[in-house]
Amino acid sequence: MGASSHSYRDRVAIITGGASGIGAALAEELARRGSSVALADRDARVEQVVERLTATGATARAFVVDVTDAGRVEELVRATVLELGRLDMMFNNAGLGCFGDAREFSPEQWREIMEVNFWGCVHGSLAAYRWMAEHGGGQIVNTASLAGLVPVPGAAPYAAAKHAVVGFTLSLRAEATDFGVHVNVVCPGPVRSEFHAAMVRPVSDPLERRTPASAIDATAAAHAILDGAANDEPVIVFPALARRTWRKWRWWPSLLTKAHRDIVAALRR
After folding, report:
1. Which of 101, 149, 174, 187 pairs with 139 at a CA distance of 20 to 30 A?
2. Residues with catalytic annotation?
């Protein structure tokens, strides 16, 4: 599959984290462009997203799957191929955020954040990669975060997981090219969704977290992801503010010092 020139018509895609946010928006946009989609989430509301899609005439399937279970993810790939005929694209999008002092997250919270964000991505990538490598190629698109490229005080467990996703994805990209499998990592800034309200927080920080004012719409995020994947961009960073922040950290990290201090001050208030 030539990622730079392919369209999304008549493709089959799996999307994890498909019950809301970026995952649901990706499903809607892929269906609009002519793809068949298999949506997976541990939240049963994924079935409602599929109902909306099928009502428009799209081909869609819902699977209630916890991506931290490698066996269930392998079953997801097998079931998708069985029901939809093949697998062209795997979007490992399931994620879980956090906010709080690194000292105050419990070991269980650290583990959950790593399991969902990193291991969930690994399970989905490897299950898809094994099938694609044997069947002529495909594309794996892993959702990391701007927090996978720059430090984010107040979100140490999440940033650790997302940095790991970036390193894993780019390493897999180098391995997979000989099999015709394209691998990309998505590093968005804040996106308007349920993500922030559902963040893991220490017991000492019971306040609900609100979506930042700079957040972009999930539909706009889906467009950016699909455009970047079509062009086979190794690292897909958006919006423009996120790209500027990444450049600052790469070339002038001291420019982010004040922003980091402000975040820490707010965290400790």
Report:
1. 149
2. 158
